[in-house]
Design goal:
This protein is α+β, with helices and mostly antiparallel strands. The protein folds into 2 domains: 165 residues, Sandwich (Jelly Rolls), CATH 2.60.120.10; 64 residues, Arc Repressor Mutant, subunit A. Helices cover 43% and strands 15% of the residues. The chain contains 11 helices and 9 strands. It has a 6-stranded antiparallel beta sheet. A 3-stranded antiparallel beta sheet has the order 3-7-5. Helix 8 crosses helix 9. It is globular. The N terminus is likely disordered.
Length: 293
């Protein structure tokens, strides 16, 4: 595949905000998405395209509305309207949402084992689900939600969320309840933790423990981790203006062949690698692929 030129005309409508160092193995990132200061985007570019992901997230809609749609629905989307504060669990397939007008949203993504540790929730109950925050979290979290909605700006929101999460994360780590580490190591850490915990006396018990912590089997996590690393490596080449060989990328990422890479990419994003690379650069609906790092 030839290098895909970056489209400098797409407005900078989203930012990836890293967490403080002490929360790097708890919070994957914060995301600020704001289209309120630009001309209204075409309808098909107001469909937000998300890949399958192992992360749990809280999203606040500071301004504007959002509803769930089928990823393939590119006409006039019609789906479930979302609350102003929502919780999203791990997704094993691509998903999409639609904004009927301008929107300002703030999102905090947590590693699934961190979500389990700070909320006590069985993450498998959230897999492939989006629910109102008030339906799954208690009064302390709803007080946090109100303060996030009322904050002056997104930097203040980051501080509010992290000051709330950090003592809970510190307590969970002190108790030894937290498996995993940062990206790349956390998948393997989860398996080791489950096997060494008292639940690891049989393969099935280990598998059930892993699923309660992260929402899906270990093989699913490895699949997502491999896909993410392959995507980031490919995007780095394209940004540098280098052509990409999908056959070489498949070998480097550990896929059996190019066809295997293409099948996995389509299953996790809804597109082939070539389609994904192109749309991430020229369609605003794929903004999350542009900012991810």
């Amino acid at each position: 595949m030839q290098a895909v030129p970056l489209n400098s005309e797409l407005p900078p409508t989203a930012r990836l905000l890293p967490p403080r160092t002490s929360l790097a193995s708890c919070i994957r990132a914060h995301i600020d998405r704001d289209t309120t200061g630009i001309a209204l985007l075409p309808a098909d570019e107001r469909i937000n395209r998300f890949p399958a992901s192992p992360m749990c997230a809280i999203t606040w809609f500071i301004e504007g509305q959002c509803r769930l749609v089928a990823p393939e629905d590119v006409a006039m989307p019609d789906g479930q309207w979302l609350a102003s504060a929502i919780v999203s669990g791990p997704h094993t397939r691509p998903s999409a949402s639609f904004n009927p007008g301008p929107v300002h949203a703030f999102m905090t993504l947590l590693f699934p084992q961190a979500w389990h540790a700070v909320t006590g929730m069985d993450v498998s109950t959230l897999t492939n689900r989006v629910v109102a925050m008030e339906d799954v979290l208690g009064p302390e979290w709803m007080d946090l939600s109100q303060r996030v909605m009322q904050a002056a700006d997104d930097e203040a929101r980051v501080a509010i969320v992290e000051e709330f999460v950090e003592p809970r994360w510190r307590e969970a780590r002190a108790s030894g309840a937290v498996p995993g580490n940062v990206v790349g190591d956390w998948v393997h850490g989860i398996a080791a933790h489950a096997a060494a915990s008292g639940f690891g006396r049989s393969v099935r018990k280990v598998e059930r423990k892993i699923k309660s912590i992260v929402g899906q089997p270990l093989r699913g996590l490895k699949r997502l981790d491999r896909a993410e690393q392959s995507f980031l490596a490919t995007r780095a080449q394209l940004i540098e203006g280098q052509p990409v060989s999908w056959a070489d990328r498949a070998v480097e990422a550990g896929y059996s062949d190019q066809a295997h890479l293409c099948r996995e990419t389509r299953a996790l994003t809804g597109m082939t690698p070539t389609e994904l690379a192109q749309r991430a650069q020229d369609n605003e609906g794929y903004w999350v692929y542009r900012i991810w790092s």
